[in-house]
Amino acid sequence: MAYDTEKKVALDVALAAAHLCDRVRQEIVPESIEKDDRSPVTVADFGSQAVICQGLGVAFPQDPIVGEEDSADLRSPERAPQLQLVTRYVQGTLPTATPDTVVQWIDRGNAQGGDRFWTLDPIDGTKGFLRGDQYAVALALVEGGEVKVGVLACPALSFGSGEPGLVFVAVRGEGASWMPLKGGDPQPLQVVTGAEADGFRFVESVESGHGDQTRQSAIAQAVGITQASIRMDSQAKYAAVAAGQAALYLRLPSPKTPDYREKIWDHAAGVLIIEEAGGRVTDMLGQPLDFSQGSKLVNNQGVVASNGVIHETVIAALQQG
Ligand SMILES: Nc1ncnc2c1ncn2[C@@H]1O[C@H](COP(=O)(O)O)[C@@H](O)[C@H]1OP(=O)(O)O
Ligand SMILES: [Mg+2]
Ligand SMILES: [Mg+2]
Ligand SMILES: [Mg+2]
């Protein structure tokens, strides 16, 4: 089957990284370092990126990786204790790791893109990770501007009363599935269908600054969703729609940051997983997300991810105000 090796390697590295993040959260209270854009990063974000870039580098040495983090914030002498800690966690997976190899692996993720590249968010939802809520390790392969393989590992996510720790994977044209992080048979993913919108739920970010929650509620109501939103950090929201737990994910530009452009690693894996589960993802104008323009979705604003059935109704409601 197409992309068999890519799927297997992506799952292996994402699982190893998810395990590292989970260990960090169980064992220490991770401190956050503030990046230049004032967003937080932790030893787990760096460790996850190191493990994934190392594994992709061995399996696909020619493939560029467009990752969120770079090692600049870890290289300064005053950050030596944090780099030591990252190295110790990476050694749990790669026993020969040293501070030098760790920063090199992290910086493999500094590529700009190309016709074929990987995009990586080593921890999507760092704020959720720090709060003890949802987060995801998100990895996707983009070829010719199209997402071909997507993996989302969600160590804190569970369905119903099941144990937390789920992984989601999709290959274009071959469907999407989920399985427990600790192993088990893959189960197919299918969005919720039917036209009974008053039974539907919608998902949105926990962070009010990452979207327009007022407008998101108004649009959900306009399309007949009467229940309150489920607020969740990270691309776990895409997983919730793909698994039929919600029919809609709305991410409309925040009035505080109207010029914000979404980063490709915040969406690529989730988009493919929803599409392969039978759903649809566009921007707020109904245009497909354009993954061919470097690290940002410069041609898109806002994201609408749905079960497909209600998609056009949502886009029409957005056009009305
Ligand atoms: N103004 C903004 N609008 C939309 N997303 C944002 C904004 N600022 C940061 N983000 C991104 O939202 C993602 C988290 O998603 P969610 O809110 O759904 O949990 C993070 O990757 C974060 O990027 P960054 O890592 O650069 O801070
Ligand atoms: Mg992110
Ligand atoms: Mg991140
Ligand atoms: Mg971040």
From TrEMBL:
Protein keywords: Hydrolase, Magnesium, Metal-binding
UniProt: Mg(2+) binding residues: 68, 121, 123-124, 266
One Pfam short name: Inositol_P
Stored InterPro entries: DPNP, Inositol_monoP_metal-BS, Inositol_monoP_superfamily, Inositol_monophosphatase-like, Inositol_monophosphatase_CS
SUPFAM superfamilies on file: Carbohydrate phosphatase (SSF56655)
A biological-process GO annotation: phosphatidylinositol phosphate biosynthetic process
Keyword Cytoplasm: no
Catalytic activity, reaction form: a myo-inositol phosphate + H2O = myo-inositol + phosphate; adenosine 2',5'-bisphosphate + H2O = AMP + phosphate; adenosine 3',5'-bisphosphate + H2O = AMP + phosphate; 3'-phosphoadenylyl sulfate + H2O = adenosine 5'-phosphosulfate + phosphate
Gene3D superfamilies per the UniProt record, alphabetical: 3.40.190.80, Fructose-1,6-Bisphosphatase, subunit A, domain 1
Stored PANTHER family: 3'(2'),5'-BISPHOSPHATE NUCLEOTIDASE, PHOSPHATASE
Family membership: Belongs to the inositol monophosphatase superfamily.
Protein name from the UniProt record: 3'-5'-bisphosphate nucleotidase
